[in-house]
Structure prediction request, 346 residues.
Amino acid sequence: MIVVTGASGLVGGNLVRALLSRGEEVRALVHQDRRAIEGLAVEQVQADILSVDDLKRAFAGAHTVYHAAGLISTKPGDGPALERVNAGGTRNVVAACLAGGVRRLVHISSIQALQGGPRGTPVDEARPLADTPAFPAYDRSKAAAEKEVLAGWQQGLETVILNPTAVVGPFDVKPSYFGRAMLMLARGRIPALVGGGFDWVDARDLALGAVQAGMKAPSGERYILSGHWHSVREVAARIAVLSGTPAPRLTVPMGLAWLTAPIISWLGSFTPLKRIIPLTSQTAPQPGSAAPAAEPIYTRATLGWLSSNPQVSHAHAGHDLGYQPRPFAETLADTLDWFMRQGYLE
Prediction:
């Protein structure tokens, strides 16, 4: 039995599909929204990672747990929630694994848990954790979660930590932070871009890498699962070609974006979901699950991410796991096609 937490998210939904394609028996943990795994031959269990008792029941009889649940936010006031869900939730997952005799935990963290500097040399698995006050709350919460995993490893639990870059891809039902940004670009709802860029990884490649890590990675290892670096302007231009909607003409240099952060946040504010996509029976949140609220795309945290080190190495994962990310153009095309077929785009 393999258990996946966060099965209703972009990463979890793709991971469940990758495991099923191998004939694995999968138990999918969901909190409220189940759309990402509808119609799949999995056992669905409702559980809250903030409840150790929930997790103990959900992990019963499991050999391997993939921990993909977490909270992503760049809002300045969300620090306590990020710490509670990302660090505290992971602490509970580790405790439930140890209590229930789970053999292996594969923790899907983030590249943001690692320090990106100094620039000029690739980010690899040897980088220290982003655990000082100089880093955004999200980064610190993911670093704190990794410390919880390390504590479990020291108590005898087999652990593997994965650090993906910015994840995009099909089956993004909620949709995710970057998925909503893609939809806004495809619908002409972002008036201005900023300089900088990010390393983007396909959720399907991340899922395949995670499966390989669960099967054969040595306990205690860490792997960066990156994709390809592209500037914001390049991403917007490609989406414009695929969607037929012109990309924003204005690109604000990163230095100026930092100086005018409040204005930049307003220029790239998320609108309520119902104004980004048509709410159909497929795209509307399930009862009891809230739609993504309005929030800015550009904050000081995201500006920091977009100006981070563009060199990220997945050589370690390539060597040990045979990991090889697909071209980013394929990812964008498949993702927008999925959004269109599901009713998120006309």
Summary: The chain has a mean pLDDT of 89. Residues 35 and 191 are 31 Å apart (CA to CA). Residues 2-174+199-228+310-326 form a domain with the Rossmann fold fold (CATH 3.40.50.720). Residues 79-100 form the longest helix (22 residues).
